[in-house]
């Protein structure tokens, strides 16, 4: 882009389910790369790449502009977004968990992976209150999207093939929990979130997103495909939500019990959750860390806790939840707030640096998007970052789930393993198999006929 790009805008009425509409845009729209993001009842579709910002261990870049590594790497993202010649831009993308190892500038624990990837889309559709605002730099693309939004197409409900997550990885995970409990007993740390991976056969990611969203109650949801990385997620909590006027909210969730179709059992589990010393301790130290982190960037006296230990339902589980909020002090912006709060304490541990060491010691592979954030940010300074949990991932021909549990001194291996299963089930029960190639379906039909002849 050699001059400032501008979006043309149009509004159209939406008569269908916004979830179906944004997935239709992802599947049938003019762009092969996209991000779908849901926040507070609004669905947004960001399609194509007008400009992008990429961060890795060497620094950041957008187009022809490259900036060398910085001791505050998220500052590079801020600076590069400011270089993008687009009016009224809004960016969508993700930040990897491993960025936490380098927030102070150290790079010795980083590999060659991308640490952040944000795009300013060619086209954007935001659906709220029965209307869709369509923005596109190419009016022809906008017209295609408008036709897709208003199209009356029958919807089908695909059949999921749930995966049993309880018969894989149990021995290794229980051993990791025992090791972490030993570290905590030795006063190396207070809490660490340890995760495990469940590999899958290929799935239909968009159909899984639709079923999973209808079966979950997330704080945020997303569906993305960017540069070979794909994910569909139902985030239980917000890492940071920052308004244009500088109000910051984070929402730590810690302390878990299962949810089922049995209301009486759910109420029993809820009561137990609210009185369980281990779960209350795990939650309290998470809230304390979130409070302390906001104090570093917010006005004195503005940081406070809302709704302490409210029970929130998130798909297959219920959590203890609190909100930590504050108002940014002069000289700080949304990127400073994200830097202070990232990664979420509920995906890392207490203290964070000691938890990072335990995660590297006990987990078998880098986390990447898991425990990181999918986010949106715009020119006004608004930022919203969802914690990446309860997500299915696909990259380089591999598809997988990942979930963890918070380990404290009172943890037991069996209970923590079961907690990972309860969380994995929030996605595992909605997995839709990838459609078979046409030639394979024909061959199977032919073979079936031969057998029965």
Textual characterization of the structure:
The protein is α+β, with helices and mostly antiparallel strands. It contains eleven helices and 23 strands. The chain has helices spanning 18-28, 73-82, 139-150, 170-185, 205-215, 263-275, 277-295, 334-341, 352-362, 413-428, 438-452; strands at 8-13, 34-39, 42-47, 51-56, 59-62, 65-68, 90-95, 116-120, 123-128, 131-136, 191-200, 220-226, 229-235, 238-242, 247-250, 253-258, 304-314, 317-327, 349-350, 373-378, 383-387, 391-395, 398-407. β20 and β21 (383-387) form a beta hairpin. The model is unreliable at 440-453 (pLDDT under 50).
Q: What structural class should be given to the helix and strand makeup? A: alpha+beta
Whole-number mean pLDDT: 93
Helicity, in percent? Answer: 25-40%
Portion in strands:
25-35%
The CATH class name of the domain at 170-202 and 245-367 and 396-439 reads Alpha Beta
Q: How would you name the CATH homologous superfamily of the domain at 170-202 and 245-367 and 396-439?
A: Anthranilate synthase
Described by strand count, sense and barrel closure, the largest sheet is:
12 strands, antiparallel
Radius of gyration from the CA trace? 22 Å
What is CATH's topology name of the domain at 170-202 and 245-367 and 396-439?
Anthranilate synthase
